[in-house]
Amino acid sequence: MKKFRILFISIIIVLSVSLLIFAACDNVPEGTVSDEPVAELSSWMSMIEDDTLLTELVIPGSHDSGTKGMNLVAETQDKTYLEQLERGFRYFDTRVMYTGGEFYMYHSVKGEMKYSQVLEDVKAFLDENPTETVILDFQWTEGGNDKGIFDMLEEKLSDKLINVEGESALEFVKALTLGEARGKCLIFVGQNESNLDRPYQIARDKDSEEREGSALRSYYNVSYNRSSSQKYIEKYIPEYIEMFKNSKGGMFVLQGQLTYMLTSIRDGEAKHDPNMNAYVKGLYESNDLQYINIIMRDFVNCEKASYILNLNVAKKLVKAADVEAYKSMLKNYIEL
Question: What is the pLDDT of residues 47-71, one digit of tens each?
């Protein structure tokens, strides 16, 4: 009887572990199983013409970039900043919390990723890849120590910060070329725009609220982003693009992620992912392509980056001598 009970318990344990593994695999967004980046993804901007405006370039972006290791309702990424950079992502939704005398990344809750490590990742990447440009968007801060956040930014990235020249940050950003920004960081600040007292800090909009002097539009309406994947893509993304058309311009972040309430973010993204990839692929021949700048995604990977980066081919921004190498890079992950 005792042996039978032990055998029965062992079978239950094996089945339980198998189910957990199956569930974990089932919840991984499509395209993340084989996600080793080729070297070219770390330097894809080297294949873009120097005189390309940053507002014209199509850039892969990461939503709530520092959430690796958070719980199911907060984690939107499963990679470090460096791993995301190696996969071609150059825009980062950077949210920092000050607590217990330390700075951490956060998304409603404090994460385990330290802000200092994020900055070190960015510095190391740019040191190794001086042809690239990184955009850090400080949309939200928490803990009441913005001075400390930007003091540390200057300490870690002092020689890599792009200072605004001229009276208008918006006009400066609209005229900024990739050649002028290579090896540097562009910094946007959202929540506490009254603290914009440093030469590299540039104001950004708050969701759908346009701010005076803002140079980055990132529209978000919670009711839109909580809709179904199909409705969001067919109805609300066109509305966001229309809002940008009617704005004063600058950089434009198209939010490709949804806000999930009744499921984990990972599970929701697994269902939304193929629809969003198909939408991005369709932009190649769309009249909206001219307005596309940054496309932000959850659980970023090489496949998502490749669909986004292919739009630079459509815009004819890739150097003529590098078009085939650029396409070859993308063919590792998507069909062209």
Answer: 999 999 999 999 999 999 999 999 8
CA distances from 230 to 227, 269, 277, 306 (A): 8, 13, 12, 22
Report all structural domains of the chain as residue ranges with CATH numbers, in order of start: 37-330 (3.20.20.190)
Q: What is the DSSP string of 111-179?
A: EEEEHHHHHHHHHHHHHH-TT--EEEEE--EESS-HHHHHHHHHHHHGGGB----SS-HHHHHHH-BHH
pTM: 0.89
105-149: pLDDT as tens digits: 999 888 899 999 999 999 999 999 999 999 999 988 999 999 999
Distance between CA atoms of residues 216 and 233, nearest Å: 22
